[in-house]
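[09:14] KT: can someone run the structure on this one? pasting the chain below
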Amino acid sequence: AAAQPPNAERAQAIGDKSSLLFASDSKPTLMKAKLGLINDLAHSRVGGVLTPTEARVVDRPAPRWTFPTDPLIGIRGAARSLRHGGDGRASADNKLSCRWPTHVIQELPGLIAKDRFITTLGHGGIPEEALRLAREAVLHDPYHDDWVAGAVAPPGQDVKITLNRLRAETLLRYGVDGTYDGGTSAFDPRMPRNAAARRSMAPRRLQPGVQEQQRLIADETRKFSLYAGADPDPVGVTTWAQPWVPMWLEWQVQLEGLDPPTLQAWKLDAIDLEAVQTSFTGSTAVFSGRSPVSTGAATTLSAAINDWLKAEDALDAVDAGLVDEGTEDAYRELDAAVKQIDLVSAALDGLRAQLLGFAAAEGLRRPSDGAGGTLNPAPVSPPRAVVAGAMTLVRARLIDAFGRVLEVPEAALKDPCTPSRTALDFRPQSLGHAPRLLRPARWLMRWVEASTPVGAEGVEARVDQVELPLMVNPVAGFLLPDHLDESLEIFAIDGSPVGELLHEAISGGVAWEIAAGRDGPADAGPHHGLEPAQAALANIAAGLIAADVQARAGQPLDQAQPAESALTALLRAIDTTLWTVDTFAALGAEHVAGLVGRPVAVVRAQLRLELMPPTDVDLSDPNQAAAWAQAEDDAKRHAFEVRIGELTRSDDGVLGFFVNDDYNHFRLVDKVIAATSADAGRSRGKLQLLGGNTGKPQNSAISHPYIAGRDEDDTLSLHIGQTVTLTILMHPGGKCCLSSGILPRKALALARDWVGPGLARIAPSLRTGPVMVETDLDPVGQVRLPKVSVFGKNQNFLWRDTPATWRTDAILAATQTALLPDAPAELREGWIRVAPDTPDGGDTPGGTP
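[09:31] RB: done, structure tokens below
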């Protein structure tokens, strides 16, 4: 007997009990089930599979090594073979047409009887449908016209009369060039009468309107046919033609600007490197090879159109379509046209391998080790590590399955169609080859511990939800811009206030104040009492003050202050960049701090460009090993541009960054921010006097040297192996995108475990005073003030009762009853701290010092 599964008897008992509970003629009444019964039922279904929650370590993989793919060549008019697939290419619904047996052509009434040539197949087991198909094969074959006409012509009658009629039937179906496609070339002025000329132009299938028109003409002319029945589907008829099945492309290309590569001729644009010069220096070399051809380009294009149409149909189902039905029909016609387009493509296999010094004219192959494995390939010439310049197709020819060769016309080589992204305006016949690292490379961008010093290898950030002390947090703290007061509050990673950057009341210079409630003297500096992990916060504050002092030191004596301070310039840059980040608040703003401003995370990161060691290459030859080492050294002399952040992506949260602890200069995501920033500040922009500004504020370029002043502000230039330490200001819920052109884009995001607890504890402080407060309130430690209605109920008034200590008073909401107290009132200056409500309704962490 088979063994019973675990808990089988218990499951049966509970199943019977549950059936009485849930089964009914109406809807299941699940609410009648008790929690214990449901748990028992679930346990009976899974047995002992469920185990208590246990911790597990998930290793994050290192970034992938990437290398450039070989260029792709597409050839139009190569007469690609449609033998495999293509069913339904002559039907409106893209399906193969099928006929009933009565539709099969067997006779020409009045001219050829159905039993004229084939009376029987001579075997009773053969179905009658086979006999019908055999008769149709004789009558429908255009190569039998002469023989059929001679056989059926009456004695003494001219055979040409019957032959002309049969040829007319053939011409009606096959045209003058023997193409059986369900259409006709007649009655269309755009169709050349010469078959060779018609083959040289774009095929009719590239013109959906013409194709449909010619099919309609063919259907009308078939009404005058003598054949009794329906013609077979074009897929069922294959006319004889000279065999031509293209399989290989032999190519020869010329590369300019090789040794040394002209990297200075390229500049990093939005996505890729773009040519900024009209000539390339360096040597020129010619490479050749052989590549298999495929229909991948046409298939990919058709699949892309088809996927878009499916997505549009899904949007139409919920009345959210992007285009009208007419546009959709046009796309469907385009899809039908490109699906069988006469286009073949081939990648220049082996080009990158040849540039690396391998003998790989037909692609790189690994030699066999004689034991079923492979060995690393060995180079035969010195490699090139970097390539940049222009590529020109010098010669190309197609080779078919039978070994025949077809040269691509020289005129087509001199006038190619290059993609707009790689086209060179000054060299229309060439393909722009942007700088690329030929060996596998990667950008190693990592979040590192916030206390990582410059020049040291930082500990990569990680999340540890079991042992919190082992978690490595790359976030040093948070900045909270306050555009109304033109100040910048600084908070630690746990949400506790650190200090505030604001403008001094008399001179307008940037000043630092320790946060309300922090222990320390009133004149404490930014570094007072901070841990090493919070050093970046203090360095940002100190660098901003130093930049403002330096800018004011250069002002003439008759000018009291510059046009704007470094703090105002920073706030304007952050505000302008934020308009491109998370416009619809999709990244979330559930914290109280979001009511005052959007918190900005201060994140520590390290960036390095790495080249994969040649462990996959046989460098047993000392000369080749020395050549590879020299090529890598030459590549390290080049500096490659990289951009941190991207304005065109709404999920990119980078607002700016500092490089290698240079906090005297703030680098923007894009230098266009400095040129297009909206006017803002004290009595400027939206803060002008009432009626002084309507609509959008005028743009006012940021000219402060803390923000602007150098052309390379929005990019970095790194050498291979060079490590830079970054301090990035970013939206806590956004991504940090990296664009370089030489390698694919990559993006990093912050884990919620790093920023969530601190954001929940941030309690903004609002400076207020002097205010008149009562001194006889019971209990002591309360102050009666109007509360900010949109904020939470936990609002405190912090003020200095002595030069070295702080006092916190809970705010009682003032009523509209204007009664003066009996005891004398006092004038106090302090801060109103708005603290978020806790889920349990208790005291708010961070609400009091």
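[09:33] KT: thanks! The chain has 17 helices and 27 strands.
[09:34] RB: yep, looked fine to me
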